[in-house]
Write a structure and sequence with these properties.
Length: 370
């Protein structure tokens, strides 16, 4: 008999509940107990707060968005900001307390479902001796060592649907619509949704963009009788001069800067340089919401069950990964080393250019050669 504890950390992603469902059922089948920690690691700080999870508690959650356990991207237990009696903010390390409670509860393993930030924390606990298995989650698809993370397919579908809807209004008003999508420093969501959703230009962090090039594409549209355009911009895209866009300092306890603003910048430059009526919108957290697609559900269910098999095989310190359609263990430390970027020589980039999409760089690959 084993006792497992699950946590969901970082920004939520469609498919989290499917992983929880899969872990609970796989453990139940083996006669093991499962607990859930609330809001990432917060639940570990008070053992009375741990949630016992049985198949009845997770009935039908595989098809729902969000996480029944709650999540946070502010609660790093190794550097947790707390307010002292004088009202000052102090940063404290509560990792020893968490490890102590893990042992007091008699847990055999912690299944940590998270992106780079949460898996980095999980890895630090593994280094402190906690048996940990990781499950890769993020709509950004930016984790190394796995072909896919769950949540990405749903986010791309949502963004593509939004682009489909924008075509008719852009066309009716002869407008340029600039759509800012998520993805942090990786352009996966922008590239996949932009190609599939008929964008005229896609700007991703991997290719610093030149506004001249983007405006030339819009003027080229005009020349060819197309008086509207759709531009997809990843939130982490930068100008060729190196300007990045974020919302400043961020929030207390949040380690990553809050990105945003590039869509409005691109729209205002297009307006200025082409005189076209231009609007911008930020798809934002819509991309994280809703029910997981079939692909994400299945991937999440496969990740959850494979994670439990990895507990059985004592593959602690490893993350379950998708490699060429197979579930394989990879060291967590390798998965979090770098962010997975779009390779600029991949076939999706060639596909975009061959169908005339401007990628904002100076290669001009979208141009007709005759
Ligand atoms: O990492 C997932 C993600 O949705 C990013 O794409 C985005 O930059 C960030 O999280 C937003 O985080 P928050 O929930 O704090 O607004």
């Amino acid at each position: 008999m084993k006792k497992i504890v699950i946590s969901t950390g970082g920004g939520d992603a469609p498919g989290l509940n499917a992983v929880i469902f899969a872990v609970v059922h796989s453990c139940y089948k083996r006669g093991w107990e499962v607990y859930g920690s609330r809001d990432g690691y917060a639940g570990f700080l008070d053992i009375d707060d741990m949630i016992r999870l049985t198949p009845k508690d997770v009935a039908e959650i595989y098809s729902t968005g969000g996480t029944i356990l709650g999540s946070t991207n502010k609660g790093n237990p190794f550097s947790r900001p707390v307010e002292n009696l004088a009202g000052e903010i102090q940063v404290i390390d509560v990792s020893d307390k968490i490890l102590k409670n893990f042992n007091r509860m008699g847990f055999d393993c912690h299944i940590a479902i998270g992106g780079d930030g949460s898996l980095d924390i999980a890895n630090r606990f593994a280094e402190k001796g906690m048996p940990v298995i990781g499950v890769p989650k993020t709509i950004d698809n930016d984790l190394e060592e796995t072909d896919r993370t769950f949540g990405f397919d749903t986010a791309v579908s949502t963004a593509t649907e939004a682009l489909d809807k924008l075509h008719s209004t852009a066309k009716s008003h002869n407008r340029v619509m600039v759509v800012e999508v998520m993805g942090r420093d990786s352009g996966w969501i922008a590239l996949y949704s932009g190609i599939s959703g008929g964008a005229d230009a896609i700007l991703i962090p991997e290719i610093p963009f030149d506004m001249e090039e983007v405006c030339e594409k819009i003027s080229d549209n005009e020349l060819h009788g197309k008086h509207y355009a759709i531009v997809v911009v990843a939130e982490g895209a930068k100008t060729k001069e190196g300007t990045a866009f974020n919302k400043g300092e961020g929030e207390l306890g949040r380690e990553e800067v809050v990105l945003g603003g590039v869509g409005e910048y691109v729209a205002s430059e297009i307006r200025k340089r082409t005189d076209k009526d231009t609007r911008s919108l930020v798809l934002g957290h819509l991309q994280r919401g809703g029910s997981p697609t079939t692909f994400d559900r299945l991937l999440a269910l496969r990740f959850g069950t494979a994670a439990v098999r990895m507990v059985e095989e004592k593959k602690f310190g490893h993350m379950v990964a998708l490699h060429n359609s197979k579930m394989v263990p990879v060291p967590i430390v390798d998965a979090i080393k770098n962010r997975k970027k779009v390779q600029t020589d991949c076939d999706k980039i060639s596909t975009a250019e061959d169908i005339g999409i401007c990628l904002g760089g100076t290669s001009g690959g979208w141009r007709l050669t005759r």
